[in-house]
Input
Amino acid sequence: MRSFLFSKYDPRASGKSPFEQLLNLFLQLLTYTSGDVAEALRWLTELDKEYKLNKDDYGIGNFIQDLKDKGYLDEDPGSGQIHITPKTEQSIRKRSLEEIFGKLKKSKTGNHPTYIPGQGDEPNADTRPYRFGDTVEQIDFTNSIRNAQINHGLQSFQLAQDDLEIRETDFKSQTSTVLMIDVSHSMILYGEDRITPAKKVAMALSELILTKYPKDTLDVIAFGNDAWPIEIKDLPYLQVGPFHTNTVAGLELAMTLLRRRKNPNKQIFMITDGKPTCLKIGGKYYKNAFGLDRKILTRTLNLAAQCRKLKIPVTTFMVATDPWLQHFVQEFTETNQGKAFFSSLDNLGQFVFYDFERNKRKYLH
Output
């Protein structure tokens, strides 16, 4: 009797070592705990008690020691406090990239194709005769040698200029993106964690650009009562605060950052779940938590119009279904002539990736 063994569905036959299996879970927990190692390890210990994560003679203590030995954790000899290392920060970003966007291969050229024939980085299927100024790297040697054999015969082989064929290339675009993340208190209210998916998207997008599009730029902004830039390495530690939603401050900072970028293609991605509820006027905050305050909305819509004049589209990713909020987003989008996606937390990453890639294909600079 013929039988089948579905080993790919057997966790014990995954081919991963006990350390690798626990590392994957530990990196996930670090995202939820905003980089708090002690809390993540407590959660991991509780999970091990409940589910017996490893049946081999490999305990959580062994795992912690391996984390230190392999450079994932660093212990302060004075205070005894344990911190994650840059290696761990990068591992979290890579894990987010694989989880949301799938595994992507690294590209050295790292720009987005625009399918305009000319001198560029990406070869296409078209060829043409050699012209003065073409480089050696552009020569299609297979077709050129074939031409030489046809034109001069096999007995007296020679490669002349008329035999050379050039492989056409495509121009590629460079893009500067600012990703705005709402860190107001509502991102963790109502029993729903909205900040963790937002962080995962930011980490995945940053790793995507670093590996596949290294000539692009990505700036990340957190905005609550104020707005401030976030270093890519600090994304795992991003937390929600007791903040209102100052969308104006976020847009103003995004526009300032994009003015410094030399790339001709610029865009803003904004992940939020709340309507604008705050302004900073002088040194004081003007707040209306019940929102849609016309004073706040007018300033926000004015900035949307400014971005439109500067040819900076704003794509809003809304992780809430409040009808009043949707009405505001539609008004904001029409003013900017941008786009809006009303997405669930599960498909937020797919929406961001889809729009990011689509925007790159349409740029022609």
Summary: The chain has three domains: 13-84, 124-170, 174-362. Confidence is low (pLDDT under 50) at residues 1-11, 103-123.
